[in-house]
Amino acid sequence: MRAVDIIQKKRDNIELSSEEMTFLLGEYLAERVPDYQMSSFLMAVYFNDMTKEELKTFTELMMNSGEVIKFQGINKFLIDKHSTGGVGDKTTIALAGLFAAFDIGTAKLSGRGLGHTGGTIDKFEAIDGFVFPETRDELVKMVNSVGTGIMGYSDTIVPLDKKIYSLRDVTATVSSIPLIASSIMSKKLAVYADGIILDVKVGSGAFMKNIETARELAKTMIDIGDSFNRKVVTLLTDMDQPLGFAVGNSNEIIEAIETLKGHGPEDFTELVETIVATALEIKGDVKTLQEGKEQVAKAINSGKAIEFLKNFIKAAGGNPNLVDDYSLLPKHSGEIVYRAKESGWISKIEAENIGKAAMVLGAGRATKDDIIDHSVGILLTKKVGDFVEEGDSLAILQHNNKNVESAINFLDKTYTLSQEKVLKNKVILEIHSNIGL
Ligand code: URA
Predict the structure, then answer these.
(1) pTM as predicted
(2) Which atom of ligand 1 lies nearest, measured to the CA of 165?
(3) 208 forms bridges with which residues in the sheet?
(4) pLDDT at 146
(5) Confidence label for 308 from pLDDT (cuts 50, 70 and 90)
C-alpha cells in the first residue's frame, strides 16, 4: 500500500477501506508518512467529506492511538459534559456541585485555556491549595467520595489528535466538520462515560459561527456516538455574547457559586439547569426536561448543590469557606468602569473581543507558556437586549495595572447598539440526541 494512492482515492471521492485508513494513520503516527502527505489527505477530506463508515474507522483509529480509559471501581453513573469552547463558560464548576447532588459522577479530563477562551483547569486553580488528581486511582477515589473527579489532559490520550490538529492549524483544515467531530469524539470515547453531553457553542465567540454548521457538527458527533453505542445529547447554545457576566478565573468561580446559591445570571442558570436536567433524562431519573429542571431548581434552593461543591473543593485541597467568603480568592488591585459611548439597546457583544480583553489583562494565555493571573478579568454589567444611556456602565475591567489600554481597545470593538428595541438572546438554541430527547 502507498500513501499517495490513498490520497488520490480520497481526492477522487472514492470511499476508503478500513485497511487503507489503518495504513495511512498508522504510518503517519509512526512518522513513516510525512506531514505533507497527511496535509494533502486532510485537504481532500475537507473538500470531499467522509462517509459514515470512514468516519467511524477514522475516529476509532484516533481513539486507539493512545490510552483508552475505563475507570475501574467507580460506583456512579458517569456523565461527561463537554463544551466546544466559549467565553465565560464556567459550567463545569457549577456542575461539580449539581451533578454530585444527584449522584451523577464526573470522571473527566479537562483542558487549559488558550487565546480568547478560558479553561476549566485554570479556573479551579484560582482556588488556593486546589490540586487535581494525578493518577487514575486518585481520580476514582475522588469520584467515589465527592462525585467529581477532574484531571488535566495527558499526552497519552489520543496522541494522533494532537499531531493532526497541529497540521490542521497550519493547512486551513481546522473547520472541516468530519475532522472536528472525530477529534472531539475520539477524546470523549477514549475516557468512558455512560452518557455524553456536548455543548456546541454557536456564534461570533465560538468555533461554529452559524447554526447550520453547528447543527451539522452536532449530527455528525451523534452519528459517531451511535457507531460506538454511546448515548449522546448535543445542545446548541448561544455564544454571540459571553455566557453570564464574568470572564476570567476568580470572577467565574464566584459567578458559578452565586448560581448554585440561586443568584446566577439568567442565561447561565438556564444552561446549567438544562444540562443537569438532560443528564437526569439520560440516567432515567426523570421523564421530561421540565421535570428535570424542577429538580435542579430544588437542589439549588435547598442549598444541596452548594454543599456538594464545598465537598469537592475541600477534597481537592481548597478552603470550602470561600463559597461564603470571596476574599479567600485572588483579588485584583484596580477596577475601571467601561461606559457606553451612546444610548441604545445592546444588539451585539462580540464574545471573542471580551475574551481577548480578559486575556490581555492576564486572565488567559496568548501562548501556551503564559502564566495566568487568576484575579483579573472582565465583569459585564449589561447583556444583549438591555437598554443603556450614554455614560452607563457596560463592563468593569478588573485589573492589576497590566495592559489596561489594550483591554480597552478590545472593548471599543465589542459593542453594537441599536435604536430599535432588541430582544434578549435565547441561550439554548436546539437539542439533538440519539436517545429521542
Ligand atoms: N475541539 C477539538 O477538540 N477538536 C477540534 O477539531 C475542534 C475543537
Answers:
(1) 0.95
(2) 6
(3) 202
(4) 94
(5) very high
Contact present, 200 and 209 (Cβ < 8 Å): no
**pLDDT score of 268 more than 90:** yes
**Nearest-CA neighbor of 107 among 196, 184, 180?**
196
Q: What is the pLDDT of residue 205?
A: 85
- Give the mean pLDDT of 358-379: 93
Q: For position 369, what pLDDT does the model report? A: 85
Same fold, 3-50 and 77-323+429-433: no
Q: Would you say the CB of residue 183 lies under 6 angstroms from ligand 1? A: yes
Distance 431 CA to ligand 1 centre (A): 20
Rounded-to-integer distance, Cα 436 and Cα 219, Å: 13
From residue 429, how far is each of 14, 25, 210, 235, 432 by CA, in Å? Answer: 36, 36, 11, 7, 10
Mean pLDDT of 357-383: 94
Checking if the pLDDT of 115 tops 90, the result is no
Selecting among 10, 76, 82, 116, the annotated active-site residue is: 82
Pick the CATH number of 332-418 from 3.30.1240.10, 1.10.530.10, 3.40.50.720, 3.90.1170.30: 3.90.1170.30
SS3 string, 283-329, reads HCCCCCHHHHHHHHHHHHHCCHHHHHHHHHHHHCCCCHHHHCCHHHC
CATH 3.20.20.190 is right for the domain spanning 77-323+429-433: no
Quick one: cell of 350? 462580540
Domain 3-50 has CATH 1.20.970.10: yes
192 within 8 A of 63, measured Cβ to Cβ: no
Question: Between the CA of residue 425 and those of 53, 235, 339, 345, what are the distances in Å?
Answer: 38, 15, 22, 13
CB of 167 closer than 6 A to ligand 1? no
Write down the catalytic residue from 10, 108, 168, 293: 168
Ligand 1 neighbour 84 (Cβ under 6 A): yes
List the chain domain ranges: 3-50, 77-323+429-433, 332-418
